[in-house]
Amino acid sequence: MATNKGDINDGGAESFLTLGPDNSVTVRYHPDFGPHSDLILLEVPDDSVLNDLLRGRVTIRGQFDEDAVLCTPSSTYAMKFVGTSNSVFLIPPGNPNLSDPQPNPLVSVLKLAPGNVELVLTAPRLDKLRFLLMQRLYKIDEEDEEDCSSEGLYTWHDLICSIQASDEELREGLKFLSAVEINGFWRIVHPKSVNMILTMVLTNSVLHDWSLDALVEEEVLSVLESDGFNTTIVKHCLETFGTKNENDNSKLWGLDKKRIAVHFAKQVLGSNGGKMRLEIFIEKWMRNVQKGTPFDLNMLEGEVLYETIGAETWIKAFSVADLPLTPDARFSVLFKERAKWAWKDLEPYVRDLRVPGISSEGLLIKYTRRVQPNADAEPIFSAR
Amino acid sequence: MEIKVKCNCGVENCSEWAILELQGVVESQPSIANQIRGLEIGRLCCSSSSSQVNYTFTVGYHELSGTKVSLKKPLLVLKKNKQEEGSVSNNEVDLEVIGIIRHKILFKNRPKAIISRPQVKDKKASD
Questions:
Q1: pTM score, whole prediction
Q2: Which residue of A43, A142, B17, B61 is most buried, as measured by CB atoms within 10 A?
Q3: Radius of gyration for the alpha carbons in chain A, expressed in angstroms and rounded
Q4: Residues 57-96 of A with CB under 8 A from B
Q5: Binary contact (A44, B75; C-beta < 8 A)
Q6: Per the omega criterion (within 30 degrees of 0), is the bond before B118 cis?
Q7: What is the full per-residue pLDDT of chain B (127 aa) written as tens digits?
Q8: Smallest CA–CA separation between A338 and chain B, in Å?
């Protein structure tokens, strides 16, 4: 009897599968037949997942109170056990006649399988990532503070064990949150600190006559380092607001005027919920943004909402990046903010929703009620 | 918590397991109770007619007919291993791929009761 099930080699699966016409074989219960609840059947949805599984690139992630998910390097699958009422007899490989010589060919069934685990492609569960990283925002002078504990701080490995997403999806999630790795911990930088560094970069650009389209990385880092700013954070600021052009050997960064304009718009309005009269906002915004920056309100799509109060138009901070990632929670927050949405206002707040197997139209059908009085009128969406 | 799914067999060498599947339940005589290990279940025969290959599985006085089916989605056989004491990882369990199933022989027609010869009307056995 085999003690290690990886070595079971006396089931006769090959004889079973290659049984030819006019031949027969006896099927019996394996001498070791039993529940073998440590053996699980996993249905593999496609060749790509099969490949990842056979090359040992797959892990199962989750906390004890969560449903487990299976992660390949790039995708996340929910695991669902599906039972069967059929009798599914499992036959191991190998030749039973070797260990248990019989006059006739023999096939042995090791176990009756109650069902198998199915894999369902699922969106990565990343809302928890923002929640974890918001626990301790990175502030510029924090090294000076007394609290040196690592409570509320997460390394890459900590995140893998807590977040149900594949490595690639986790990295994308970190990028989406503009998180940065400092001293081995992934951090979101406090908005005030982000603003401080960006302002320093812009002020120094004027002082040193730097071109914002071609900032020399070394120069920026060394000037700001001498002013006491951590180079990792300054580099992160360049990544957040710019794009690298690798020209020759020097690393050059071009700052994106739109990203900067949006940043200052948010500074003027304050965090979510902050609102003011539109004319006042525009005046303050223009003062903050670089001269010569072409900016227009369309840049703020997905960042602000407009309200008419009396005869005035008010503008209010409402950023899609702060909203939940799962469709049901997202629509719930959206309809709490406003009972009815015109499509042109709603679209920037739903265009990033991704659910495997459902199209954007499908999501609208599932979570909203659509009303269109006539063919010329704009459709209005409300909660189901 | 992260559990790695190991595979020592690699893409080429994964052992092929198989499945025999039927609708219903195989029961042993009450006198046997749980002492079924090593006991014969039935006899599997293969025959071919025109283009098709058919299988017949005879269990007791029932005769089932079925065919070989290729699984559209293969099944992997995974084994849960309890970690040994003093292992590096702090998980209690790991998983290993020990086999793959690409084909099964499926019996989904109602069993025919073999009562006597010559031919009698099929008494459909209860499911």
A1: 0.85
A2: B17
A3: 30
A4: 58-64, 70, 85-93
A5: yes
A6: yes
A7: 899 999 988 788 899 999 999 998 898 888 877 788 888 999 999 998 878 889 999 998 899 999 999 999 999 999 998 876 555 555 678 899 999 999 999 998 888 888 765 554 444 444 4
A8: 39
